[in-house]
Amino acid sequence: MEARYRRLVNPFQPLRVLSDDEIAGIHHAALTILAEDGIKVLLEDGRRRFENAGASVDADFMVRIDPELVSSALESAPTEFELVARNPERNVLVGGHSVVLAPVGGPPHATDLDRGRRAGTLQDFSDLLRLSQAFDVIHVTSQQVEPQDVPVNLRHLETTRAYLALSDKAPFIYSRGIGQVTDCLEMLRIGLGLTEDELAADHYCYTVINTNSPRQLDIPMALGLIQFAEMNQPAVVTPFTLSGAMAPVTLSGALVLQHAEALAGITLSQISRAGAPVVYGAFTSNVDMRSGAPAFGTPEAAKAAFASGQLARHIGLPWRSSAVCTSNIPDAQAGYESMMNMMGAVLGGANFILHTAGWLESGLSASYEKFILDVEMAQMFAELFLPLDSSAAEMGLEAIHTVQPGGHFFGIDHTLERYEKAFYEPVVFSRANFGQWEEGGSLTAAERANAVWKQILADFEPPALDDGIKEELDEYVSRRTAEGGAPPES
Question: At 443, is the pLDDT very low, low, confident or very high (cuts 50, 70, 90)?
Fold first, then answer.
């Protein structure tokens, strides 16, 4: 498809909901928690690294980190970095005013209007990956859905092969133990035609590290922080802090906990390799206090996003946010909840927005129709970034993307022609033209999206991949499969 939204720059000043003193107070409170109460680190090697760097460790695995150690880690972490894709035209900048949009990641189920809700398969993973590749407003790939028809010890091999065969954008790699990460990085090295030193010299993939709130870093996540740092690959450190559940019920309390956990993960990354790329992740929302269910798209989530952006800028790191919803189907609720979260992320100045397209049912399902509707929304946000009555250069921004009129689905010639006709010629409703309306215009947004994703998959052509590289990847997968793959380490 035509390149329109490959590199987005947000020209707006981020919204602020807290004063500078309040942000400094949250930062100080988080440092105090780390120094006095600490964070539990279940990985022995992680505790040893902290201790060697000057932190104290007790018999209950609690690590107490001095503010000076955290400050040193923040000084070494880069304020921005480039994520390098197989296709250089797909490279993206993470940090500054740049905005990177990633699709849904990790749901166990897939859903669409034809087949309903079901356990995710490798076919679903591959089809959603094709959709991610098809749209320039989606800048990197993700674990679109869990392919549960592939055993977990082999799943990483098949998903990484799909990344390299179906997309030329930078891929996501799960931190599920040393064996799986090693396999994925080796396949990435093969797919990119690099040596091990060349792979470690730049940033070619990313992972997400979730702390176990409150105040715990488990073994796979600590392993991931260390391994990705040592390989010089980006880690997005994201506490999952829901007010009223694993975080204090007040928004300020949840933000303090989020900030403390993120700082601990960032510090482990930097003491493992100073200068390793790392992103400040935020996923603070609230729960329904009657049911305990997560609530997304709420005013609290938007306020938390604005404040999280301020906290990330306070420590000088790129910031990750999300565009998520609670609704179980791609309906109006799904739309306004996703828009609410997207507004919080974009107006808050997020650099990396996960779950931009396809998230449904609080992350339990990846929806094909929601993917298309979310892409439409993402393209509208991309249009907002265009300068008004002036060039990007005049605004002090690099003119690195060009948007053509009709960049979204409702701007196609078919729609514009009928808009002009309706605007200039009064419509006389009759049985004949009402029948035409029923045939096309009466379709719901989800029904129209259903036709769109089917057409995209039917027309999809994968990016070119050298036959020799493809053969080497297939041989690697066959050999590792025969050896039993790599079970996730816990």
Answer: confident
